[in-house]
């Protein structure tokens, strides 16, 4: 079992036995995360743009004014998720929450929220400023008044980080059954799905660099995985026929990526859990990055295929994993997960 899989199994297993008589909460893992969130950032997000669906940020949210849940997602597998979740602080320009989306913030909200549409519920661990409550429900200081509030956020963040890395590794290990051809300025992806409805390509970042346009033929595949090797990724290709519908069935997996720069409209969900990314145009589909400077929109729909990697612990998808409300043992597990994550990031920096 790989390190990330072992850690995820340990986190969920310890949580499951920590307080067996307590109420159960849901933790989202694997491909279910891509089904539920339009954008996941495993570090800090600096945004001046918008996300049509739900957003999860394990670090801080800053930047100019930005917009969340512009549309109402219809494909979630978990009920009650807010339109915006930030484990850290929210600073910079005012953030706009739309369509009754609501928000959960672990730290302080200095920027303020504009609460648009139906009445919303906002839960904040620290303080909140520059927000007109009106008919909405805004609760602050929850980190002090409700210890489980912070612990729940930390648990989901730790499990999500480990799960996204494990998912990326699992997808990268799949055997290719489809072949991409590169001729002149065009790359043609002709999917040949197996009996499970999954088509897998294996290409390199250099393959993408030598073309300027992409022809994608999914051929009825439930899920298409495009594994792209390479540390530095440039996405500047045009999609012939447009990007519509690709995000729900195509996953571009950049398991080795350390940087990712996107300048053209991109069709398909993106999984790059270690990449420091900058998006300058829209992405149609779900997206996962290590950190992100966002100058382009994220569009629905999110990944909607039925595929679940059998080796992804805690469920590559399917039903979210129920875990008890936090207790002493669970807080220890969360802390251990955080320490292992920090150690891994330090090793990556040291070997860069």
Notable characteristics:
single chain; four-stranded parallel beta sheet; alpha/beta; about 350 residues; 15-stranded parallel beta sheet; about 25% helix; elongated; 6 helices; disordered C terminus
Short description:
With 352 residues, the protein is of the alpha/beta class.
Protein architecture, described:
The chain is of the alpha/beta class and 352 residues long. Helices cover 23% and strands 32% of the residues. It has 6 helices and 28 strands. The strands form 5 sheets. The protein has a 15-stranded parallel β-sheet that branches. Helix 1 runs antiparallel to helix 4 and helix 1 packs antiparallel against helix 6. It is elongated and about 60 Å long.
Percent of residues in helices comes to 10-25%
How many helices? The count is 6
Q: What about the largest sheet? A: 15 strands, parallel
Radius of gyration of CA atoms, rounded to a whole number: 20 Å
Number of DSSP-assigned strands: 28
Relative strand content: 25-35%
The mean pLDDT is: 86
